[in-house]
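We modelled the chain as a single entity of 373 amino acids. Its sequence is:
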Amino acid sequence: MTPRKIALAAVAVAVLAGAGIWFLSGDGESGKPGAKSDAPKPALSVTAVSPQPAEWPQTLAANGNIAAWQEATISAEVSGHRLTEVLANVGDRVKKGQVLARVDDDTISAELAQSRAALAEAQAMAAEATANADRARQMGPLGAFTKQQITQYLTTEKTAASRVVAARAKVQADELRLAHTRVVAPDDGVISARAATVGAVAQPGQELFRLIRGGRLEWRAEVTAAELGRIFPGLAAHIVPPGSAPGTRIEGRVRMVAPTVDPQTRNAIVYVDLPSDGAARAGMYARGEFQLGTGSALTLPQSAVLLRDGFAYVHLIGPESKVTQVKVSTGRRSGDRVEITGGIDANARVVASGGAFIADGDTVRVVESQAKQ
């Protein structure tokens, strides 16, 4: 073989080898050069879930003060006398008529004895005057007494009777003053404050004790004027006292809705009766809820809702398992469920968990799908 033929054969072999490489680099099925799969790789394996309808209780949250239903001020009704005994303290439960304190009664007892003696004297004088008047009435027609004498006896009888009435009134007044030396509870209740001390001189109107009548407390909840129409007497409410253990709440009932709205705050007061044996204390500021009934709600697991920049989002699973981040509106929460009030419908399929590891537009692999119940 000549050198020229050897060179041509080498070129042909090189061309054939290049063609083979070019053919092998193409798509095996289509046989076209450069045909290569461009399907994206799934970013994460996720579980899909749809919003579930549920009957949830409707509540209205509010805040307000806990106060005494009625608080009575107890003071001494006699003045200028020292307290000799104080028999009640703060927190004591007392009964109506129970003695709380005693005032020195020596002077009043002496005045009462003097008044009773004056009454006895007046009664004796009245008896004598009555006897004289009776004789005058009997003997007058016989001429034994002049008209002037008869008139005098009758006048003396009336005067003596009036003195008896005045003396009896004085005795009753002193007996009442003596009774007032015992400071008593005007009603059943709990002593909430005490200013009485042994040896102090009582003054009229001076507060000695303060009493929560019946031990009854109430929650004075503030609600807006727009919410006022949803509340009515008898509605159930529960209150969570500050610092109470998780799950602790006090059940109450709406007693009255205020007839006016504060023109400054546009809020109204709702008065809720509380049990007297609960954990509530007068002066607390507590939060609570009014139970307005039940209503339908679309709910998702809390793990499906992602919070970013103060907004709630879910990852909506679209065609070809591609996710789209969608802003949703949320409402109430119950356990691990969140109410969805807007942004998606009941037929949507969203990522159940792991949304923090998915970006908008990622492709995912759905490994399990939870049907809408």
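As a brief sanity check on the tokenised model: The chain has three helices and 21 strands. The chain has a mean pLDDT of 81.
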